[in-house]
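Task 17 of the worksheet. Students: predict the tertiary structure of the chain below and write it out as structure tokens. Keep your answer in the requested format; marks are given for formatting as well as content.
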Amino acid sequence: MTRPVPPRFAVSGTVALLAVVVVSINLRPGASAIGPVLEEVRTSLGMGGGLAGLLTGLPGLCFALAGATAVRFARRVGTTGGIAIGLVAAAVGLLLRATTDSAAVFLVLSTLALAGMALGNVLVPAWIKRYGGTRQVRLATVYGTGLVVGGSLGSLLAAPMATALGGVDLALGAWGLLLLPALALWGWLAFHERRNPAERLDYGLAPSGRVRSSPTAVAMAALFGIQSMHAYVQLGWLPQVYRDAGLSPNYAGTLQALLAATGIVGSLAMPTLIIRARTLSPYVVSFGVLLAVGYLGLLRAPATVPWLWALMLGVAGFAFPLAIALLPARTRHPEVTAQLSGFVQPVGYLAAAAGPVLVGLLHEATGGWTLVLVLLAATAVPFTWAGLRACRPVIVDDELVAKT
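Model answer:
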């Protein structure tokens, strides 16, 4: 087995930590801010149910298609450069979509922004593996937490910002301003990396096998896909479920933010838990049970104890930081980390993209949420199976070597 040479880092630990914070917190608000004001967006842009479903499914679709090209793109421009370019695309898309009243242009600019975020989704775990050194667990924890915090802020502030700024368009576009400090830092890092290529960590040659031949990678993709499907269904439609039960837009947005914020605990805990726990099986089973009960609670009593169902779904969402943390934890070589991330996330998000669209179509066809919520609860079974298989203590690099 090839061992990494003693590391020389292109960035200090403090700068690496700051870089991960500012990028992670910017990879979700552009998507999560749509749900609480979806009805207002539909009205202002004249969207029907199918087109609104496409909008809510767009994050998963963009994360899948753009994410699939991220590793190849990074080989040309560098991992850091790929992340920086992604931030440029995200900022441009979010800022410009505030200026249009055309549904088609809004979707195009949203696609641009989400494609930029997709590059970060795939490349940041590989960047952490390459430059994190002994700080990998800490940086992975910060990264997962930042994703959840950013998603929570988007959900929590969308409706209040729309009221304060006098329009949903300005509220959604304002998230582009948050990207500017991140863009400045990552632009500087990309310039530094390009001028000092010798400072990259040398791990030797990566295993030559295809990641999709790894059973662990396939299980991780399935887990990530089912969890992401739930996450984006919840981002896009959970506030509407609550609003249809008689709750106000602000309360619905707050409940969605509660769901997302609950994941902060999971983001802080899961990376360390992966390293220290003897087995992750009890946690995975618990997540599956909470997922099913949460949806069934929304079906039976959505407005009675709405916070309880949001809390249950939020704890079930601990599977997301679990899946993110497994990317560097189950790999040894940074190139394998990049390939695994470039396989798991696009495949997972491609599966996830269909969820919000189908939910929109089923809801419109049936005129209610019963069938939708029953089907969502039933997915707890494959979710649990995939999680149990993905959490086995196996290194993907070794499975690739075994296949060659």
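Marker's comment: Residues 1-9, 198-203 have pLDDT under 50 and may be disordered. The CA atoms of residues 16 and 132 lie 8 Å apart.
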